[in-house]
Amino acid sequence: MSLFARRRVAILSTVAAATIALSACSAPGEDEESSSSGDGPIKIAVVNAQSGQLSSLGAWELKGVKLAVDEWNKAGGVGGRQIELGVFDDQGDPTVGTNLARKIASEGYVAMLGTAESAVTIAMAPILQQEEIPNITSGQSPGLVAVKSPFLFLNGPTSTTYDETLAKYIVDTKGIKSIAVITNNGSYGKGEHDAFLKALSSRGVTPVADHAVTTDQKDFSAALTSIRQKNPQLIFVGAEEVQSGLIVKQARDLGIKAPFAGAAPQGTPVFIDTAGAANAEGTIVSSPYLSNEISDASRTFAAAYKAMHGEDAEMHGAKAYDGAQIMLTALKNSNLATGKPLADAIRSTKHAGLLGNFTFDETGVGIFETSIGTITSGKLIAATDA
Amino acid sequence: MQVTIQTFIGGLSLGAIYALVAMGFSLVYRTMGLVNFAHGNVVMIGAYFASTFYLSAKLPFAAAMVIALVVTGLIGIVIERVLRPLENKDFDLMLIGTIGFGIVLEALAIIIWGATGRAVPSPVPGAPLDVFGIRIRTYDLVVLAIAAAATAVLVLFLQRTKRGAAMQAVAMDHQAATAVGIHVGRSNSIAFMIGAGLAALAGGLVGPLLYVSPAMGGTLGIKGFAAAILGGFGSIPGAIIGGLCIGVLDGFTAGHFQGYSELVTFLVFTVIIMVRPTGIFGERTVNRA
């Protein structure tokens, strides 16, 4: 009995070790079959957080990618070959990410889609560059461009674009000058903070308050009460979906009536649910994908997404869908090339996607505009005066 | 001044949650000498049960909480039953076993409820009270009241009932307790069950304040554990004071040190623990390991 119980616990405890070990052990000698030759499936890796704090992002991304690949596979694949997705969990952790980069290289994946977390993608980029594996990421930090890897592409605009568009609307169109800023000190929040303040200072506006919170913080009473005393006309939030939602909810509880503004996360259903629809009302959002109702293409996408996954599509899924479409189109156009030729094929792919018309420049960015939307009755709709 | 009072109030409501988490840690520790590393994840499971019964089954919040408490308590019993053969044999394996359980629970939550998580609307509608410009959420008052009531019930159970006294006896000397006919395994089982129940209470109450997701156990677990240590590990009043202290401390460091608040909170925590290693109420030391 005791031996059995001991083994049972040993098994449980090895779950922890195994998760780490699985991602760590990628022996260089593992069968290095090139999947671009022969007629087996084409292997594409999807790396994203499937567990931990950022797993909701990872889940959306995966759903978008799956939908795109499913459509191609049903239409006969690329060059007569099916596409096989390998899903890897980076746990939102750069260290795990670098291990996965080596793993997908040794297992013969020709390309990678993801991650949604800029810090992880930046950590993986040097290895992917060395192994010549093209990567289309969903990150948006300007740091991704600074890596200068010819194998790294973005499936959306960078924070600079998001926040420049937002500042232009708020300051130039709306004439709002009294702005408070609250951002978290993670890689995303820091990028938003710098990009938005840069856009403000180029317009000669200094924020009336500038508060940083940690990524784990749950209670914002101190920062929000001092923001309330400054009585700003608008509050800029630079944080992920859930934290942004909590900030807005607590601000309303503290009696702050000013509207909020932010980039992509503030347009998501998770943000609106966390804040509460009434509290999120009037939030100004800068996003490349305002809603599923924007065009015929987005309506078709949303319907197919709902049919496949049983839930409403949102921006991250749409971005990942665009990224996967670009990758597969490039594979097709280059006649199933790998390495540098595939990267060149991605760069020369002109794609009319859900986010707009992709035309990649040498930095790997393909889209340079976002739209302004406002949350009205719990839904993000395009601003009429933008 | 307004900022100071508002920060204090904001810290109190999360502090009450940390206190409930800390009580679960302490109860298991004082009875078994074991740190249950799965406790944070049990909080998360409790939050999911409560929100599922409240949102999906459309039960009243109170009923959903009671069911969540019972179901999560049963999970506590299961954890203890699986780990029981290791008691007195290999304590380190038992510790690692609780870590394993934590990972299993998180994975199960992702399989059952998905990775995205859910927001829980406040069960107490209505605008916050406004007292001289200080805003107090009605739900915060509910949380504080329930936490106080739970503490009172737990203390009464431990001090006034035969079963509670038996648990105290096991905590003090489990061999002597066995000799006088107390079933140590059953006592441990009850400790785990109550601990899990407290976790469900904390998780269920924190749902409407925060956001229910498979990863929520991490921070709550760490803050709750720190609260238990600060108050004196194993002490029930210590857990309460420790929880409220950590919550309020967190609020103030967030105001003054912004992005470095976490660092400062734990630096202060470390200094207090260095000055007083047994914590605030830590006169009783349990050493079974």
Automatic annotation (TrEMBL), chain A:
Residues 1-26 form the signal peptide. The keyword Signal applies. The keyword Signal applies. Keywords: Amino-acid transport, Signal, Transport. Pfam families: Peripla_BP_6. Residues 41-376 form the Leucine-binding protein domain. InterPro entries: Leu-bd, Leu_Ile_Val-bd, Peripla_BP_I. It comes from the Bacteria. PANTHER family: AMINO ACID BINDING PROTEIN, LEU/ILE/VAL-BINDING ABC TRANSPORTER SUBUNIT. Belongs to the leucine-binding protein family. This is ABC transporter substrate-binding protein. It comes from Phytohabitans maris.
From TrEMBL, chain B:
The chain crosses the membrane at residues 6-27, 34-55, 61-79, 91-116, 136-158, 190-212, 224-249, 255-275. Signal peptide: none annotated. It is found in: Cell membrane. It comes from the Bacteria. Keywords: Amino-acid transport, Cell membrane, Membrane, Transmembrane, Transmembrane helix, Transport. CDD domains: TM_PBP1_LivH_like. Belongs to the binding-protein-dependent transport system permease family. LivHM subfamily. This is Branched-chain amino acid ABC transporter permease. It comes from Phytohabitans maris.
